[in-house]
């Protein structure tokens, strides 16, 4: 049975890929176009056939590996192939434990998925065996992996290399260039976003999701996807590797350091901004009490905290990122506060509510360029020497960004799980060897604002400053030191703080 026997199952570019019998084939592709899904379909037929052989699948993380093996199980059921359930097990490789997922077929062959350690391939390579390397540009050491893999072709094995790009200097792109220069006789495929659309990608999405397809709808959806991936649309969608090594922080690296956490948003509408300042302040107080106070109340009072703000008045977003420093020095952003077109005084309200609500506040960093100078000064008036009014110069980026990147590489930072925040981080590019945000918008209203707030918070946590602790002062009198005293008469002008 051939995957191509039912023309409605796979799209044109998927069919062309699985129909190519080359011993070594590569594809540079747009994101999320279903290449791995098509590969799973072909691999099930190959492993289930007595004329086939074992298939080994490698990717950069556990989630992709699980997803692929589940696709294989789905295809085995669709083809009515006799196969075992997915077996999750641990194997020993050079005295190290490696998690694997396996489906066995009555043919005596199996599909096995595991991590991208090159050592895992050293025992593979029996006649006809197939290796699939998915998102190859993102594996830990693609050069060593390919060196180990090529031995599989000696006895008639097959290698399939699938990936989106990850920078001009990445070994994946270098290998593609070598193939184009005819240094290798590997087969090379390329499918960008528009080519996938021309082959029916959006029509298939509509079919699966129950939408009605139209040319106008497809054009609108295409533009939405391009806007979503800005400024990385060329690399992520159109197979054009970014110069200078691609995005400074890869999507894989960022998403691995994320977990669910709130992202709050306040938009200054035309009607709201037209109110007298006391009315705006009262409405903001209500919003803070309802939305911010519950989050601040959940913070661990034993932990040190820091805060960063990337300021904007109307064009970009103004983002505040609190940061908790754990016992092991792991840093976590418990929530993110985004403001758009919010007046200075109300941004000050929100900033003070968060800063004074953070337990053991030990550092504050405010983007104080341009209009941000006002917020930087008011923050310094409020908290004194623990505030750094940051002028983000090239030298500041040069010193700060390698430290921030190291937190992702070491897994010592946790950010809210949010796609906009991923794209904000992806916006950092190397300019003259220094990672920084490019000029102009990076995505919609954004200019890497959330990422910059997190960088500033990380910087604030490194400041050599003494943490703030205080006791509220009641109106008209000195502070009481009596722990049983009733605080009902205390002023709430600071919007939070350490009681």
Automatic annotation (TrEMBL):
Stored InterPro entries: P-loop_NTPase (IPR027417), Phage_Mu_Gp28 (IPR012036)
Coiled coil: none
Region (Disordered) residue spans: 475-499
Acidic residues bias spans: 482-492
Pfam families in the record: Terminase_6N
Gene3D superfamilies (alphabetical): 3.30.420.240, P-loop containing nucleotide triphosphate hydrolases
Protein name: Mu-like prophage FluMu protein gp28
């Amino acid at each position: 049975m051939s995957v191509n026997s039912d023309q409605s199952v796979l799209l044109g570019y998927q069919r062309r890929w699985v129909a190519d019998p080359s011993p070594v084939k590569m594809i540079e592709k747009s994101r999320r176009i279903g290449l791995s899904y098509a590969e799973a379909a072909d691999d099930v037929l190959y492993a289930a056939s007595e004329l086939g052989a074992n298939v080994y699948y490698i990717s950069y993380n556990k989630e992709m590996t699980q997803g692929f093996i589940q696709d294989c199980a789905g295809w085995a059921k669709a083809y009515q192939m006799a196969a075992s359930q997915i077996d999750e097990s641990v194997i020993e490789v050079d005295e190290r434990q490696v998690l694997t997922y396996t489906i066995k077929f009555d043919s005596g062959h199996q599909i096995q998925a595991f991590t991208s350690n090159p050592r895992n391939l050293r025992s593979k390579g029996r006649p006809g065996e197939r290796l699939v390397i998915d998102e190859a540009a993102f594996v830990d050491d693609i050069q060593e992996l390919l060196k180990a893999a090529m031995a599989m072709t000696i006895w008639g094995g097959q290698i399939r290399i699938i990936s989106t790009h990850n920078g001009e200097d990445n070994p994946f792109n270098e290998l593609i260039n070598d193939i184009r220069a005819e240094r290798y006789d590997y087969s090379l495929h390329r499918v960008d976003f528009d080519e996938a659309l021309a082959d029916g990608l959006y029509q298939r999405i509509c079919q699966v999701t129950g939408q009605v397809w139209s040319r106008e709808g497809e054009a609108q959806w295409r533009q939405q996807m391009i806007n979503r991936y800005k400024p990385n649309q060329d690399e992520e969608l159109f197979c054009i590797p970014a110069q200078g090594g691609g995005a400074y922080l890869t999507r894989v690296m960022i998403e691995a350091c994320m977990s669910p956490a709130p992202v709050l948003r306040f938009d200054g509408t035309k009607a709201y901004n037209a109110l007298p300042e006391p009315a705006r302040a009262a409405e903001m107080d209500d919003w803070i009490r309802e939305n911010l106070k519950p989050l601040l109340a959940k913070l661990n009072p034993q932990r040190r905290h820091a805060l960063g703000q990337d300021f904007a008045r109307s064009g970009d977003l103004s983002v505040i990122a609190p940061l908790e420093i754990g016992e092991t020095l792991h840093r976590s952003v418990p929530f993110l506060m985004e403001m758009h077109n919010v007046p200075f005084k109300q941004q000050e309200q929100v900033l003070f509510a968060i800063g004074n609500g953070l337990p053991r506040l030990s550092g504050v960093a405010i983007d104080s360029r341009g209009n941000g100078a006002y917020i930087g000064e008011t923050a310094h008036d409020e908290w004194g020497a623990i505030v750094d009014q940051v002028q983000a110069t090239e030298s500041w980026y040069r010193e700060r960004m390698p430290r921030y990147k190291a937190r992702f590489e070491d897994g010592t930072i946790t950010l809210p799980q949010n796609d906009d925040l991923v794209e904000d981080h992806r916006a950092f590019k190397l300019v003259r060897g220094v990672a920084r945000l490019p000029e102009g918008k990076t995505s919609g209203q954004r200019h890497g604002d959330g990422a910059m707030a997190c960088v500033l918070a990380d910087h604030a946590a490194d400041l050599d400053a003494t943490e703030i602790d205080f006791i509220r002062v009641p109106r008209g009198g000195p502070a009481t030191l009596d722990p049983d005293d009733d605080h009902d008469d205390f002023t709430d002008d600071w919007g939070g703080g350490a009681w």
